[in-house]
Amino acid sequence: MTSSVDLVAASRTYTGAPAPAVSRLSLHVAAGDAVAVLGPSGSGKTTVLRLIAGLDVPDEGDIRIADTTVLGVPPERRGIAMVSQSPRLFPHMSVLDNVAFGPQMSGVPKRQARQAAERYLDLVHLPGMGRRRPATLSGGQQQRVALARALAAEPAVLLLDEPFSALDPSLRADMHRLVTELRALLQPTIVLVTHDHQEAALLADSVAILIDGQLQQHVAAAALYDRPNSLTVSRFLGCLNEVPGHARAGRHVSALGTIDTAYPDGQADGDAVLVIRQEAIALTRADDPAANATGCIERTTPRGARTLVEIATTAGLLFAEVQPGRRYGHGDVVGLVLPADQCVVIPTASRTVTAGQVPASPVPSGR
Amino acid sequence: MRRRPAGGRALITGGQASLALWFALPLVPVALWALASRWNDSQVLPEEWGPAGAGSALADGAAASFATSLALGLTTAALATPAGAMAAYALAFGRLRGERAAALLLLAPVFVPPFVIVMGVNVAFLWLRVPPAVALALVLMVTAIPYTTFVMRAALASYDIGAEEAARTLGASPRGVLRRIRIPMLAGGLAASAFLAFLVGWSDYVLTLLIGGGQLVTVPMRVAAAASGTGNHALVAALSVAAVAPPLLLLLVINRLSVPRTSRPATDADARERADTELTGASA
């Protein structure tokens, strides 16, 4: 069984805190969808999950599960299950009894609950681990058990609170594959909280960006990097290039020149910043007619297999992340190609999406 | 890994043995006297062995005293353990106003001499016609609460309340959380605080004397009376053994129950290695 989840202008301010942890947040998660709430540390992400779970109460606004308000409904009756960063397995129970806990609490006899638990342990690829104590499992295995335990409760909504952030990269990749597999099989409604935008884009259908307790943008996961609606979102997503100037007739005019941009329709003229991700800028010969601008290389910094190149241009420093094998040295003069479909113009007084506003990019309403 | 200096292990073993001797040696003469029928001062060991001491103790009414002490110990543990656990939980998670003042108040019976409290309280109990046994149980509970509270506070310091939240989201009611999660996860701390509360009730002398007014005769009172008056070493030794045995037995039981079932958490590398071994084993 899956259900939709709605936060309707929900706010929560903790005693003594100078600002609300969550401010007039409205978010819709369709039944069977996975939405990632993405934001930096302290942005109010976990509060969102606690409000949905009933572990915390909003000061104002409403929380609805399956179109019914759940304000005043205790956590155990909301039909949710939560997996957090720490697996929080019950140390005094065997792995099997941990997984059987949810079914048992809903009145399933012990024997049947254990049989169900065996099935869920198989699903998370831990067959035969039931007799073990949680302390004898590795971190990755414990997190799998936590996931099996949550799924065994057959929740209408599965809440994942940065569940893989404590795992090493290879284990995290394993868990991402596992969640994708489980989604295809069980189709639960998922609200995932994370600060990792790659994880959000990988696991969710849409991504809600939450900064300082306010929803900045709710966008389809596939379009996460394509069209930030504010400099705050662009910077949070790791975009390094910002060129001040102004928008005119769907183009951006600055010290860099006149640049064709993405989504020119409906763009108002006026002061605006051109943003383009460092991965989108291609470097070419200085005399290449395809180049939008030229510049002189200031510095190169290895970034794993790729290299981050800093280029001094007439509009200031720009950054390009180039593919492996391309070598540049200090003082090299290069041409910069800024693909129009990657250039986003943000009005200087950029607004943020507040409660009830339509997201900047279409969010899929179903699966 | 840092290596232990040469001879370090022998030094540690020697230290441990000395410490064990320090505790055990005073008990040796008591144990020997408890089993001796005759032991002349000039002899190293008793000349005659037998249960004379135990016989004298039983004839002196030690069995009834033993039962009284046991009842006092168990009642104190039964009252002070839940009270201390609740106080500690409130101090740890209750977001109390004046938490420090409440903690100090709970600790007060430790630094106020017991007879100072008792003299005033006893008058009130007499005026209210509270039976001495009930009055004593109440006062012993108050005396034991600082110990149970602070043992439970220490236990709660390493307690992850997130486990309770996880249980709630998995469908457990507050009562279910208490029964299935909180009590089992705090069992070690509860056992230790119950043990301390039992000791307070079991070994009390002053409060029993003042409040019991001679109606309640406990093992410590019998030991004191025998040691100060009779000169019967076998009797004193038998009573002392009776005084030491229950706490010692309880301590052994608690120790046995609180031995961790696993030595250390596995690492992911361990788990992979184990999985590989299991797979190899399965395919072989």
General description of the model:
The complex is a heterodimer of chains A (367) and B (284). Helix content of chain A is 22%, strand content 32%. Chain A is α+β, with helices and mostly antiparallel strands. Chain A folds into two domains: 5-223, P-loop containing nucleotide triphosphate hydrolases (Rossmann fold); 238-347, Nucleic acid-binding proteins (OB fold (Dihydrolipoamide Acetyltransferase, E2P)), CATH 2.40.50. In chain A, the strands form four sheets. A six-stranded mixed beta sheet of chain A has the order 6-7-8-3-9-10, with helices on both faces. Chain A has a five-stranded antiparallel beta sheet with strand order 13-12-11-14-20, with no helix packed on it. Chain A has a five-stranded antiparallel beta sheet with strand order 15-19-16-17-18, with no helix packed on it. By secondary structure, chain B is mostly helical. Helix content of chain B is 76%, strand content 2%. Chain B contains 14 helices and two strands; from the N terminus they run ααββαααααααααααα. The longest helix of chain B has 32 residues, at 62-93. The model of chain B is unreliable at 261-265 and 271-284 (pLDDT under 50). The A-B interface holds A 53-55, 74-76, 78, 80-82, 84, 86, 88, 90-92, 101-102, 105-106, 133, 135-141, 149-150, 153, 159, 168, 171 and B 160, 162-163, 165-173, 176, 180-181, 184-185, 187, 261-262, 264-272.
